[in-house]
Amino acid sequence: MRDGKLLTFIKSLNQLINELATEEIIFVKGKQLLEQLIQNDDWLPEELCKPHPEHYQQYLLYADPLDRFSVVSFVWGPGQKTPIHNHTVWGMVGQLRGQEKETQYHLQKDGSYQAGEESIFLPGQVARVSPSTHDIHVVANNLSDKPSISIHVYGGNIGRIQRAVFHPETGLEKPFISGYANAFVPNLWH
Ligand code: FE
Question: 3-state DSSP call for residue 63?
Fold first, then answer.
């Protein structure tokens, strides 16, 4: 039997990580793998596409047992968005369905956070975050009438990492660990 799309992606990514690929290489080769994965929108299990009425959902699709990387689906209901937050590890965000808007935030001399560059992502496109370049942003569903879904890959187990949300005016940093919305991960051999 041929491997499914998600399994194929995870195998290739695992191989890349085993080769001790640098962030720079992951952002080229890993990005190509993610682009292939999101080329089709027929593989994400229905249970992991479900929006929540009040807040966005982060479903775990796969986490490396050694915490070297993780793959999640982000599902946004109409109008939902994140607070200003960081990641602390490299990340790639591939748009699967709908549209997302990313706004980068920059720390000011007075300690506040100011909105900067804005980008809209359409299905098939990949965004990146990195602690070495830009790691603080707000992401929102850019559609007011439909859910949007993106597939994220991080250089760590994103649901277990302590990171932070930031208050825009005071810059106050609040630590958080996101966890995952699902109790079960998909069967990659189904
Ligand atoms: Fe983010």
Answer: strand
What separation in Å is there between the alpha carbon of 187 and the centre of ligand 1? Answer: 26
Mean pLDDT of each 10-residue bin along the chain, 190 residues long: 93 96 96 98 95 96 97 97 97 98 96 97 97 96 97 98 97 97 95
CA 83 – CA 137 distance, rounded (Å)? 8
Distance CA 60, CA 48 (A): 8
CA of 87 to the centre of ligand 1 (A): 6
Going from the N-terminus, what domains does the chain have, and what CATH number goes with each? Answer: 2-176 (2.60.120.10)
Q: SS3 of 175, please? A: strand
Amino acid at 94: G
Q: What pTM value is reported for the model?
A: 0.95
Distance from C-alpha of 44 to C-alpha of 75, rounded to nearest angstrom: 11
